[in-house]
Amino acid sequence: MRIYIIIFLFLTHCASRPLSTDVSRSSQSTKKMAQTLSLLWQNQFKHKPPTLGPKSLELVSFQSIRSLYRYGDEQARIGDEARAIASFKSIISKDKECSQKECLKSYVYLAALAEKNKDFKTALNWLEQLAEKSFHEAAHYYKARLYLNINKTHQAQSELQECLNLNPLELRCHLLFVQVLSDTNADELEDELLNLYGRHPSSVETIKELFNFYMDKEDLTQAMFYLSELSLFEPHNLFIKFQMALHFEMLKKNDVSQDYINQIRIIEPSFINELGLGSRTPAETHD
Q1: Is the pLDDT of residue 247 over 60?
Q2: Which long-range contacts does 240-245 make (Cβ < 8 Å, 24+ apart)?
Q3: DSSP labels, 60-114
Q4: Among the four residues 34, 77, 225, 270, which has the most C-beta atoms within 10 Å?
């Protein structure tokens, strides 16, 4: 905004000068002002990321939390973990009530960086601090992920139970809990999946889990029911359409099966060829 005000004042200054003004002096003044504006205009688009040196705390005090988080994220991605950690800690220090989402994400980032360096105690400590800021569900979820990554399944399951006790509708805790049960072949997996579907009937992840579960059990009727549900949410998923075509071919409903094949050819004509099936119909493929 400041650059535009300067340009406006410059133009006003030029317009207000009488025509009788000495041409040489006017030309020099105008040239000098133009050079100044040119430098300002160039600097307008120059962005130099802040440098976290010895006076990092002084610098950080001039940064917005959002820009500071972006800087920390950028440093973490390029491998400068020291600067990233300093940025995230500064965010937490600035936003003592943790009222902005960047604060919550900073705790999670710090825990992730600690976990990456195999410092699991520090990682858990950051997540405990996150819980103290009243982000209990998020803390339980990320602690569960941490425990799973270090093969402590029982502790992970306990954290997820705590998360769901606090909020039975917390989808990500449900989905991670399903993953835990799948890995342990728990008998309650089907009940948990159906419970999750009842609470989140439009969750694509949940429907996929149910489809895979019943396919593993070789319960084709139930599997195809959830695949049909999934096709409503992903109408352009060619693999789903092809699976539906095979299913209806097995049921001797060739017209319906061929309709799915025709839909595939309209959306992506080369899809059947890419599967190595050429121009064969589902019946020929199944044989």
Answers
A1: yes
A2: 241/267, 242/271, 242/275, 242/282, 245/282
A3: HTTS-HHHHHHHHHHHHHTT-HHHHHHHHHHHHHH-TT--SHHHHHHHHHHHHHH
A4: 225
Residue 107 belongs to some domain of the structure: yes
AA identity, residue 51 = T
pTM value is 0.62
81 found inside a domain: yes
Percent of the residues in the chain that have a pLDDT greater than 90, as a whole number: 45
Type of residue numbered 214: Y
Provide the residue type at 264 as one letter. Answer: I
Residue 72 lies in domain? 57-117
Distance CA 142, CA 109 (A): 11
Taking the C-alpha atoms of residue 61 and residue 57, their distance in angstroms, rounded to an integer, is 6
Contacts with 138 (C-beta within 8 Å, 6 or more apart), sequence order: 104, 108, 130
Total tally of structural domains belonging to the chain: 1
Place of tokens 């489809």: 211
Indicate whether 17 belongs to any domain. no
